[in-house]
Amino acid sequence: MDTARFIAGDPAVKITRVGPRLWHALDGETVAGRGEATTRPDGRVFLSVDAWHRPVFDRLAQEMLAASEEPLHTVVDETDHELLEAWQQAGLTIRRREWEYLVPTRVTAAPPAGVTILPTGTAEAGRLRELDRVIREEVEATVGWAEMPAEVLPQPAGADPAKYAVATEDGEYAGLIRVAQATRLPRIGLVAVRAARRRRGIARALLNHALGVLHLAGIETASAEVNEANAAATALFDGLGARRANSVLELVRHGR
C-alpha cells in the first residue's frame, strides 16, 4: 500500500491570503492547498498546511512563515516522515515529544482515605473555578503552559462543572480531571492536582474514577497525551497498564 503523503507534480499555484490567518494555494480556480495559523489561548501560534503536492506545501509554508510573528509551532505525527521533513526544511526544529497512551478502562478500588471524588457535573462552580485558577497559576509558575501537552488548552473563563470530576481531600478541592468524549476513543484531556496535595494518590484516584465511569458505559479504552519529559505522568500511566501507541512531535521556529 502506498502511504506517501505527497503525490508527484508541481502545480503552478498562486498563494492568496483569504483571511487574517488563512491562506489558499490556487491552481486556476481550484484550491490546491490550504494553510492556517491558529492562536491558542496560551498565546502560542500553531501552523497547519493541507496540500497534496510537496511544492505547494513548501510555498504555503514560506508565505505563512514570512507573514506570521515568531515563535511559530506545529504538531506532527512522528511516523509521518514526509511531513516532518517538510516542516524541518521550512526552518522548524523539534522541541519535544508527546506520547499517546491507550489506557484500558476498568472499575478499581476506592480512593485513598480522606479523598472523595465528585462526579462530573456535581462540583460547586465557584470552588471549581478557584481550584482551576490555582492549579493553572501553579503550572505557569513552574513548568509553564508551554510544557503541557499541545492538545491541553488553558481556559481563561474557568472550568465548567459539566466537564470536570473533582477530588476533595478532607473537604478541600484538591484536583480535577476532564475527559473529552467527542469520538469513539475518549481522551483524558487534563488531570491535575494542587502542588501541596500531590504524592497522595489523588491523581491516580481521579484517573481510576474516570476510567471506571467509561468502563461502566461499555468503553474499553481511552487515550491520553503525555509529555515525554514528565516522568511522574509517564510512571502514572505505565502503572495503570497503559501502552504507548504513538508519538507526536511539537516543532518550533523562534524569532530571528
Describe the 3D structure.
The protein has 256 residues and is α+β, with helices and mostly antiparallel strands. It has two domains: 14-91, Aminopeptidase (3-Layer(aba) Sandwich), CATH 3.40.630.30; 101-248, Gcn5-related N-acetyltransferase (GNAT) (Aminopeptidase, 3-Layer(aba) Sandwich). It has five helices and twelve strands. It has helices at 54-67, 81-89, 125-141, 202-216, 231-239; strands at residues 14-19, 22-27, 30-39, 45-51, 72-77, 93-104, 115-118, 164-169, 172-180, 187-193, 221-227, 243-253. The strands form two sheets. Strands 5-12-6-11-10-9-8-7 form an eight-stranded mixed sheet, with helices on both faces. A four-stranded antiparallel sheet has the order 1-2-3-4, covered by helices on one side. The protein starts with 13 loop residues before the first strand and ends with a strand. The model is unreliable at 150-154 (pLDDT under 50).
Looking at this protein, list some descriptive labels.
single chain, 256 residues, alpha+beta, Aminopeptidase, 2 domains, acyltransferase activity, transferring groups other than amino-acyl groups, GNAT family N-acetyltransferase, GNAT_dom, Acyl_CoA_acyltransferase
